[in-house]
Amino acid sequence: MKKIAVFTSGGDSPGMNACIRAVVRTGIYHEIDVYGIMYGYDGMIHGNIRKMQSHSVSNILQRGGTILKSARSEAFRTKEGRKKAYEELSKHGIEGLVAIGGDGTFTGAKIFFEEFGLPTVGCPGTIDNDIFGTDYTIGFDTAVNTALEAIDKIRDTAAAHDRIFFIEVMGRDSGYIAIECGIGGGAELVMVPETTTTIDEVVKSLKGLRKSKTSSIVIVAEGDEEGGAAEIMDKVKSRFKGEDKEFKVTTLGHIQRGGSPTAKDRILGSRSGMAAVEGLLKGESNCMAGIINDQVIYSPFDACINKSKPLKDEYLRLQELLSI
Amino acid sequence: MKKIAVFTSGGDSPGMNACIRAVVRTGIYHEIDVYGIMYGYDGMIHGNIRKMQSHSVSNILQRGGTILKSARSEAFRTKEGRKKAYEELSKHGIEGLVAIGGDGTFTGAKIFFEEFGLPTVGCPGTIDNDIFGTDYTIGFDTAVNTALEAIDKIRDTAAAHDRIFFIEVMGRDSGYIAIECGIGGGAELVMVPETTTTIDEVVKSLKGLRKSKTSSIVIVAEGDEEGGAAEIMDKVKSRFKGEDKEFKVTTLGHIQRGGSPTAKDRILGSRSGMAAVEGLLKGESNCMAGIINDQVIYSPFDACINKSKPLKDEYLRLQELLSI
Amino acid sequence: MKKIAVFTSGGDSPGMNACIRAVVRTGIYHEIDVYGIMYGYDGMIHGNIRKMQSHSVSNILQRGGTILKSARSEAFRTKEGRKKAYEELSKHGIEGLVAIGGDGTFTGAKIFFEEFGLPTVGCPGTIDNDIFGTDYTIGFDTAVNTALEAIDKIRDTAAAHDRIFFIEVMGRDSGYIAIECGIGGGAELVMVPETTTTIDEVVKSLKGLRKSKTSSIVIVAEGDEEGGAAEIMDKVKSRFKGEDKEFKVTTLGHIQRGGSPTAKDRILGSRSGMAAVEGLLKGESNCMAGIINDQVIYSPFDACINKSKPLKDEYLRLQELLSI
Amino acid sequence: MKKIAVFTSGGDSPGMNACIRAVVRTGIYHEIDVYGIMYGYDGMIHGNIRKMQSHSVSNILQRGGTILKSARSEAFRTKEGRKKAYEELSKHGIEGLVAIGGDGTFTGAKIFFEEFGLPTVGCPGTIDNDIFGTDYTIGFDTAVNTALEAIDKIRDTAAAHDRIFFIEVMGRDSGYIAIECGIGGGAELVMVPETTTTIDEVVKSLKGLRKSKTSSIVIVAEGDEEGGAAEIMDKVKSRFKGEDKEFKVTTLGHIQRGGSPTAKDRILGSRSGMAAVEGLLKGESNCMAGIINDQVIYSPFDACINKSKPLKDEYLRLQELLSI
Question: Do D184 and B21 touch (CB under 8 A)?
Fold first, then answer.
């Protein structure tokens, strides 16, 4: 293998740049040419491909976002689109791919591999930490810390006014960000898609806390089955009628995707990027380079996409127990 | 004057604790007893008043929120309520008041002074910077820096996906936070209540920038005449139909109220608190201790409440010129 | 077991408060009285012991330092001192101990247990991550992120002036902070006590980088065999005579010990604190509650003190490979 | 005037990039070509000059350091060097200069102007805030906030161990950073070059505080007449012999020069850069564009270099009074 290409796809996450840097430099170290594909699958189709040098990735380790950019690609969902992509890669003599992204990225990579047989290794880049085959995903630790800083600030103002705050964090199908924010932020309640918490239970909990706590924080994962934070707040509020209690809602939104990555995400991105390239060289393909119990493990895309990673029961218990 | 009391009222702002600390320690320095009133006017009415020592305000300088808490008080809007408040203060022998807050706080303080003649000096504590009689209000600098950090993060993800982001910052009647965030965040457009920017103009600007910029950020003050950021985005988006452009919205919300105050806010809070106490001792009353051109100036509550502080034209021009 | 006590000892680390909070609340949850011992072993000897309530640990989760304070204790190194400590604990009816700290703390705890048989479980609180029996210690992640933020800032000014910076981070016997900062900060070189890097090698590396890099950063663990960062810089500088290259040194020092803990350290502190109490209840003693491969593991104090935790070879390789 | 050039010189400061961006974009707005000179006066002599476009300064507003880099230039201190510099500028047809830097930069600019008559306007870029003709310099606010964050962290560990910390901040001839950190950080004592504080006084103060404070922080400006923080600590420590008190020292160093600029510094850099270009166009020269009482003021280089800016007495008093 003498020429490989790297791209980012799906929602960006802090640490993707560290990963790109590691891919490029590991390639150079092994005397391989590394190409960068701009805008993910869309750029692949349009031949938006450029050769990377060591200095192309200087001074990006500490930056959020992705210098290779990301985009949706309807065309790549079609056979014609993928064929065009393969032709563009062939033109450049690309013999291997590193795909940085999440579920959707790997689904595309798997189909592409099955159709054209181009060796591909993935790196888990998404803030949601919802990918099987790795303990943590690149960007998750930064997202949690960013959310936590926001929650710390909100607690200041919640405490000053004795308010109940509902704070919505990211996580469409996964409560990982929510539960870590709940433990780390000392939240009174956490609502995640993995467990059922009814409005009745929320109301009961909050009413129970009235004696011991003047203000409360409820963390809501965006994918919770009772709705978003605003909707849940409205339902709860209606059950406190006649009581002199203020309710507020904040949706943290896209600030969770950006920012300079934490040490953990810089290291995870770097390890994963190096492992992807060295995996390709050793013949790994159609799989993701994750870190499980501090070891690099290559898991088939198939497992990464289809198996789900459960929330840790210990974390749910920890959050509940410590919120007394 | 041998006994004074201090309270915070209205929305909390970072630096209020620095101000409380300065009031307490300046009082002690001048051998005056200082009392803290909890929950603003409401606590005044309920006699929620406690004597403060030097160590009561230890280790609070760097904290957001207010250790004296804040609350709304419907009762204080009535003559009976205010009479009750005066009686409670009299019971404790309070001879002077320091009121930390914004417009509403000073309106209450003015009426109370006119009715009962208790000497009162205000300190400008609000993140909005919408108070006449001071160049900056306590908490404004922190709010701007908090919003700016969020905007920096959002720019990472906006750039990664070539998106147009509408970001709503606080400021109901004032575009101060928005304009400073606009200049500091390198925003492409800023929408403030003080100037009229039509949807037509926004659309025209954004379309004009398409050649030179792949992503754009529009900062919207919550009080803008065209609506909040979400509403404005919807209007603008409908005018980009058929174009492959993604629009996103984020409302920064209450994170702007909390957090450890910046150096500027700690110093402003400290100066203002010291000036309030020393003003009371020198016979100042029914006025606010602001800082204008780096000098302590006592302005009548009447002026602070009724005069408006215009946005600087230079800032509007600076933002526009630099966004090319 | 109906009464336990908790204390912190040795150098403080961010997350110790999260751990104290977890100990107190887990105790309360299991209907046990929890006492706080102030100033570690010294306070034990002097009977500086107080009962803790749930609200005693409110609002401390996000704070650096330790509310129970820490101190050296010469007296506890004597048999008489320890006897006095045991008598004070007996007076309060203490039946179990949670010791939060590092090597020295556990050595004391082990001797104390062997002499008086009071069940004791430790929690690994130290920024150095040099304790066997846990993947990470409480405070390590925060220290690394604090150092990394400082390194990012220094890189700005290093790059502006094309300078070579030597940055000393904490770690007397351990290069953990240094190596994570080296990978995360994109350092050109890392000098750790675990490996030998001669001045010759440093000079050769830096001279080799002259073509590709205008500025360089060398991270030095305080315990490196070639001396501190200042000493190493002097040695290296003398080998660049006649060349127009500026060298600078910064010792990050005690900022690495303080600050609001990261999510990881809040969670690790919380888990470890809960595990210590529940371990005591289940009969664990003379051991530390660490987290290995994401599982709570109780390792004998003996092992924690005497076995050393090697640096990961993968990390050394990663840093070297990516610095090209 | 159709062609101007901009450069940075002396120590870098956060906000210099905001200033460069404003110079370039204001020039383009007024249909002027703007050239960037790399490495200050040194690059001027070597003709290291390149044309800047609007996108040359994209995405730099939020970055520390200076994209134009900085360097010392012995050659520029000679007549021959300056002649060479003038010839290089003439080759490019440069008709005006914007010099971003401090004292040394403006001294060079003044001599250069007097010899060759090339119109030059300066922008005050230095973290020390020691320049007459402007209330604040670009980078000062960021440096203070960076130092303050470090001081907050150190206070955590100082409090945990009841220690006395001596913290050295930057400021060779000026106590501005020190005094703002002293007020903002709640320091017990501040030692600045502008006032004389003897070791006797320091010892007396610290001994006096023993009853009320268990830990103390002394901020030392690097240019204090009693020496650096380490030297002062040693002197003080020797006077506490026999007392069980721990002393520690931290020198914050170069972290104060880097980092993402605060809102204030981004705005100040932007205003100053715009004012420099528009000043040149209106015929201003041999002067600096400062901001005094929120107005742009052009002060002759001569005054900026030779007049000193005294510390505010109010600040010294505020710090002292609030440290009780």
Answer: no
Distance CA B212, CA C10 (A): 57
Q: CB B70 to CB A161 under 8 A?
A: yes
- Size (chain C), residues: 324
Task: Please name the member of C181, C184, C318 whose beta carbon is closest to the beta carbon of A274.
Answer: C318
Q: Tell me which chain C residue has its CA closest to the CA of residue A261.
A: C184
**Hey, what amino acid is at C158?**
A
Is residue B128 part of the annotated active site? The answer reads yes
The answer to whether the beta carbons of residues B53 and B179 sit under 8 Å apart is: no
pLDDT in tens, chain B (324 residues): 999 999 999 999 999 999 999 999 999 999 999 999 999 999 999 999 999 999 999 999 999 999 999 998 999 999 999 999 999 999 999 999 999 999 999 999 999 999 999 999 999 999 999 999 999 999 999 999 999 999 999 999 999 999 999 999 999 999 999 999 999 999 999 999 999 999 999 999 999 998 888 899 999 999 999 999 999 999 999 999 888 889 999 999 999 999 999 999 999 999 999 999 999 999 999 999 999 999 999 999 999 999 999 999 999 999 999 998
What is the predicted ipTM?
0.97
Interface residue C262 vs chain A (CB under 8 A): yes
Token pair recorded at residue C210: 């002259």
From the list C254, C245, C238, the residue with the least C-alpha distance to C165 is C245
Question: Within an 8 Å CB–CB cutoff, is residue C155 touching chain D?
Answer: yes
Tokens in use for D217? 């922080």
Phi, psi values for residue C257, rounded to 5°: -90, -20
Nearest to D250 among C71, C159, C254 (CB): C254
Query: Which one of C179, C264, C322, C324 would you mutate to disrupt binding with A, by most A Cβ within 10 Å of its Cβ?
Result: C322
Contact flag A14-B146 (C-beta cutoff 8 Å) = no
φ and ψ at D7, to 5 degrees? Answer: -150, 160
Could you tell me the domains of chain D? 3-139+261-306 (3.40.50.450), 143-257 (3.40.50.460)
